[in-house]
Amino acid sequence: MAIEEKRTFCRICSGNCGVRITVEDGRMLDIRGDQDDPMTLGYACVKGLQGIAAHYAPDRILEPLKRQPDGSFAPIPIEQALDEIADKVRALIARDGPESIGGYRGGGAFLNNTATNICRDWLDAIGSHKFFSTITIDQSAKLVSLGRIGIWQGGRQPLAQSDVVLMVGSNPLVSVQGNVFDVRNPTKRMKEQRARGLKLIVIDPRRTETANYADVFLQPYPGEDPTLLAGLLRIILTEGWEDTDFCERWVADLDELRATVAPFTPEYVAQRAGVDAVDLRRAASLFAHESQRGFAVSGTGPNMSPRSNLAEHLLECLNVVCGRYQREGEKIENPGVLQRREVRKAQVVPAPRWWETAYQSRIGGYRNLLGDMPTGIMAEEILEKGPGQIKAFICHGSNLVNSVPDQYKVTEALRSLELLVSIEPYMNETAKLSHYIIPTPLLYERPDLTGFYAETMLCPVPFARYTDAIVPPPPGSAVVEDWRIFWGLAKRLGVSLTYEGVPMDMDSEPTTDDMLAIIARHCPEPWETLKSYEIGKVFDEYPQFVEPADADASGQFTTMPSDVAAEVKQVASEPAAHGPTVSNGQIFAYRLSVRRIREIFNSTGRNLPALRKRMPYNLAYMHPEDLAELGVIDGEKISITSDRATIPAVVSTDPTIRRGVVSMTHGFGSLPDDTVYERDGSNTGMLISTDRDLEPINAMPRMSAIPINISRTNL
Question: Taking the CA of residue 378 as centre, how many other CA atoms within 13 Å lie in the half-sphere pointing to its CB?
Answer without folding.
Answer: 36
